[in-house]
Please model this.
Amino acid sequence: MAFRIGKSVMLNFGNDLEPIFIFIGLAFLLLIGPILRWYVLAMTNPDFSLDRIYFLELMPFVMIFVASLFISTEWYENSRMAIVVFGSGLIFIYLHLAFYIGKCLHMVKTKKNNYKITVQTKSQKNIFNWLYHLLIGCILIWITYVLNILDNTVPYIIGPIVYSIVIYYLSYKAFQMKVIEIDGDAFAVNESLSLFNRISQLMVEEKLYLDQELSLVKLSEIVDKTKQHTSSVINQYAEKNFNDYINYYRIQDAKRMFLDVVNNKFTISSIAFDVGFSSLSSFNAAFKKFEGITPSKFRQSNNRK
Model:
């Protein structure tokens, strides 16, 4: 990308730039597509490694780069064939990049669809969001340069400007989303998801949250894991700490009881204790945190309906 934008800047501000630099700069566009695909593969597949066959994708770049070394200024300025070669080469190069961007979008979408049926970790969500940012940035760059060559729809200098802005933005997002600290290992099959599914099963089927004495230590003993491991898995997959995770189930149970007119004879305190809370104050605080209103207001508003 640096070579590509360098060529654009030299062409815009330099005088009589040698055609060899123009063609070499365009040739580097043929590198972006394959490397982009390899990067997407590395970010979405654990233990990814570049096999030798992958390097065959660099052949278009190698061929045009080598051919660029033999282009003279005289031939470029005086030969009609130069126009044909330049035009056809330009079309091929931009279609080549468009093909790879489309392929990468399809890869990311397919991978994401495969994870719709499972709980995504924070790292996996970050990777998907980052890759979409990256690919949208590449699309903006591609569109800008295509508009530039179509009868100068936009000034030529807009290309490198958009290029630079996109690269700076992507660099900022990379650090903000901490994607430099994660890779395809985020998609490795491990025991963490199985453990979280087991904990969820205990909550849904056995209603373990109804136990007022339930603690992180007690839950860890039930699933036969360390306190730290259990807490980490809940934070990773539920995106909540232990207390919020348990209280969420309790609040959902309380809401169901409030909505059932049969339970109107029971006080709020009684329902709070029934769903696992040890005090009315903690129930009120948790209910307002998840629902935005107090239990009494929730009950009143639904009894009017």
